[in-house]
Structures are given as C-alpha cells and as structure tokens.
Write a structure and sequence with these properties.
Blueprint: E1 6-12, H1 19-27, E2 30-33, E3 38-41, E4 48-54, H2 66-76, E5 83-91, H3 101-113, E6 119-124, E7 133-138, E8 141-143, E9 148-151, H4 158-178, H5 207-223, H6 244-260, H7 273-284, H8 290-298, H9 313-323, H10 333-351
Antiparallel strand pairs: 1-5, 2-3, 4-6, 5-7, 6-7, 8-9
C-alpha cells in the first residue's frame, strides 16, 4: 500500500499571513502585494513543476490571473483576523508515474471548482521524487459574476476535512489503477481499520536543513561584490587614487583640445594643377583617325611585337653569346675541330 498524506489548513490574517505571499510562494512567482505595498518575491524556485488556476463555471475571467485573484481576496476581507483561503496539501504516491501528476492535480482542483471554489494549485518536487506533493489554495467566498459573495461556511467544519481525505483517496486510487500500478492508498486511520500499527508522523521540511541553506545563501551574498568595477578609483602612475573631480577636469580639457584642433591642410601638388588638368583633358579629347583607333584597339593583341623588330649589328655578338652559353653540350663538328686545335696549341707551348 502506498503512503497516504493529506493536510487541510487555513491561511488567516489573524496569524499575520498574506494570501498573496502564500500564492507567490507556492507558485514560485513574483506577485505585487497591494495590501503590503511590496513584491512577494519567490521567483526562481526550481521545485515548482507546474501551477495553474481552475475556476468554477460563471466565474469572471480576471479570476484566472493569480495576482488579480489574490489581491482581490485581500481587499474583500475586512476583518483583521479574516480567513483568506483554505489550503489542501497532499503527497503524491511515489508509485504514481510523473506524467500522471498534472492530471491528478487537475482532478483534485476540479472536485472543488464543482463546489464553487476557485482552486490555485502547484506541484512541487525537488527532482529526487523523495517527496512530491501538491498545494491547492481555495477561495472562501461564493463566486458571482461580479466577484465575491458571502462566505462558504461549509468549509469551516470537520466534515470538509473528512470529505477532502476521501476525495483524495478516490482520485489517487483511480490514477494508480489507470497507470497499471497494483497499489492503493487508504484515507482511514489504522484504528478505524483495526490495525495494530503505530501511525507515522509527517516530518515535513527539515528546519535544520532550511537554516543551513539560508546561512549558505547569506554567506554567498556577503562574498558577492556589491560594487561595480567601473566605480573603482583610477590610480595615477604612483598608484595613488585620482580624485573624481580631477578626472572630470582632465576629460573636459581633452574634449576642448579635440574641438580646437584645426582640420589638416591638404597641400596642392607641385606645378600648376589647372594646367595639368587642361593637358589631361586635351589628351582625352584628342581626335583620332579610324586607322589610329583600330591600331589602338588591336594593341593588346600585339603586346610582343618587339620580337619582330630587326636586331642592331652591335647587339648580335651579345645575343649570340647568351644564346650559346650552353654550347658545350653541342656535338657539332665545328666545336670538335676547335677543341682539337686548342689541344695542339697547348702541347706546342709545353715543348717550348
């Protein structure tokens, strides 16, 4: 058998509580608190899996907004000890699949919207599925098309608690059966079931753990720098801080110097620019004959026409030498005869 846990409590102004703050905490949101003129800031909670508002038929549309709904509740209650909301908190069986949690929360909330309540629900889980549970905040007045009517007095007695326990048993067992889980929960006590067992006690959140988390959070806040690096003093070359007035005066002087700078002088080129422009314009407007124009158009195709120019006589010897700088590779008889003559001259010189 799965573990059964359900608790019903009041959110009362007489206890110094605010229903806007309670709704913000359970939904993990930031809600403007008009009565206390501040923000009820519980945004960023990672254990809030889902939340929503279920309204009865005929309820005004503005009641679907969490901020508007609970601030209106605070305004509707005039007594200093007024009961602002009823809360039903119940544990989700660990055997129930996670994908069934939202449907279960909707089913429980709809059981109370059918009775005329507005139900604001939130599913909590820390990620370990060690203690998944649901909070449902219920309004305490009759819902009309204009807003809130008289108090629902049936929510004050013990019968309301007994019916809530039975309702959760029915909803949870239907969900477990639909998920194919062969376990059930029972809202009856061990005594009513005539079981010789000691009832367990719901431990709730560990106060020591909460105190330790708050202490760690305060230590992190103390270690986090609260100043901006841009506000740090600027040191001079000796390491001493420069007074902000001196920095402001230096900035004014720098801006003044920049504004006083004259634009650079562009020097004219040597000679007479006007005459040079006239020469260029004259060349560009020079009339050409059709033959000259054709020769100009064909010039790119004759870029190597210098190869056809006759070689001057004084250049022939030089070109011959450079063209035959590898003549030792040639096997022509002319070069062989020359080599033989050179060898003969060398032998005659040795004999002498």
């Amino acid at each position: 058998m799965a573990i059964y846990h359900l608790n019903v409590k009041n959110i009362s102004r007489g206890d110094g509580r605010s229903v806007v703050a309670a709704a913000a905490y359970r939904a993990g949101e930031v809600l403007p608190n008009d009565a206390e003129e501040k923000l009820s800031d519980f945004g960023g909670r990672r254990d809030v899996i889902a939340s929503g508002i279920r309204s009865p038929a005929g309820a005004p549309e503005w009641m679907a907004d969490r901020t508007t709904l609970w601030n209106a509740v605070e305004q509707a209650e005039k007594r200093h000890d007024a009961r602002l909301a009823k809360e039903i908190e119940f544990a989700l069986p660990r055997e129930l699949p996670r994908n069934a949690w939202l449907a279960v929360a909707h089913a429980m909330a709809d059981a109370y919207t059918a009775q005329g309540f507005v139900a604001d629900f939130a599913i909590h889980d820390d990620g370990t599925q060690h203690n998944p549970h649901v909070h449902i905040l219920l309004t305490t007045r009759v819902i009309t098309a204009e807003g809130f009517g008289p108090k629902i007095r049936s929510a004050d007695g013990r019968q309301f608690i007994s019916e809530a326990r039975v309702t959760w048993e029915r909803v949870a067992n239907a969900a477990l059966n639909k998920a194919g889980v062969a376990v059930t929960i029972d809202s009856r006590s061990y005594a009513k079931r005539k079981l010789d067992r000691q009832p367990g006690q719901h431990r709730g959140p560990n106060r020591e753990d909460r105190r330790a988390r708050r202490q760690r959070q305060r230590e992190r806040e103390r270690m986090t720098p609260k100043h901006d690096d841009r506000d740090l003093p600027v040191p001079d070359p000796d390491g001493s801080p420069i007074h902000p007035r001196e920095l402001a005066a230096a900035e004014v002087r720098m801006l003044s110097d920049v504004q006083r700078e004259e634009p650079p002088v562009i020097l004219e080129p040597n000679g007479d620019p006007a005459a040079a422009r006239q020469v260029i314009e004259r060349q560009n407007s020079r009339e050409m004959s059709e033959d000259d124009a054709a020769a100009y158009r064909l010039a790119p195709d004759d870029m190597l026409d210098w190869l056809g120019t006759p070689v001057a006589a004084q250049d022939e010897t030089t070109l011959e030498r450079w063209e035959n700088h590898l003549d030792w590779l040639e096997t022509d008889d002319r070069y062989a005869e020359k080599e033989r003559q050179d060898l003969q001259r060398q032998e005659l010189d040795r004999e002498r």
